[in-house]
Amino acid sequence: MPRLPKNFRIDWVSVEPVESRGYLPAGPDTAVPAFFDAHIQLGDPPAVVGIEVQVTADAGPAIVELSIRSNSRSPITTSVLRQVLVDQLLREAMNAAVVPASVREEWLATLPPEHRERAVSTGMAPVPDGLSQADRDAHTAAQIYTEALAAGSKSPAVMVGHAMNRSRPQVARYIRRARELGLLPPLGSPEGDR
Fold first, then answer.
1. Most exposed among 70, 170, 179, 187, judged by the fewest C-beta atoms under 10 Å?
2. Is 41 within 8 Å of 12 (Cβ atoms)?
3. What is the CB neighbour count within 10 angstroms for residue 110?
4. pTM to 2 decimals?
5. What is the superkingdom listed in this entry's lineage (predicted)?
C-alpha cells in the first residue's frame, strides 16, 4: 500500500446505502451496496467530504458526486483540494460499505420474482454442473474478476491469479474463455478493457 502524505488523514467514514439500488457480491461472504453515500471526516486537511459511489459488476466502484465542506478558519483553496486524495477516499468508503452476504440475500428476498431474477443475474451465479474443466475454470475466474472489480480492484486479473494460484498466461486464457462464454464483457467495450 502506498504511503499517504503527511498532510492527509481520514478520521472516520460513515456509509448510507441506497437500498432500492440493491447489493452486489464483493466476496464469498460479503456484499456492497450498488449505490451509496459516504461521509468522510478528514483530520488533515480539516474538512468533511461527501461522495456518492456507484458500483457495477462490470466497471467496479466510481465516485459520481463529490462535495467538500470546510469553515472560514480553514477555507477550501486550490492547495487544500490538491491534498484531498480521491482514490484513497473511494478505497476507504468501499471498505466501510462492505456488509455480510446475508444482507444481499435479505434484499433479494424482498423483490418480486420478476425483479429478483434480473438482480441475481447482475451478480455471479454458481458454476453450473456438467461443464468441462476449462469452462469451470473460466466461470471461477469470471466470478473472482467481477468480485475484484466490485471491491475496487484496479488489477482484477492479478486477483484471479492469486485466488486460483495460477500463472498470468493461465489467467489470460481463463479470462479470454470467460469473455467467449459471455461471462465478462468483450474487449473493445468500455467495461471489457480492464
1. 187
2. yes
3. 10
4. 0.60
5. Bacteria
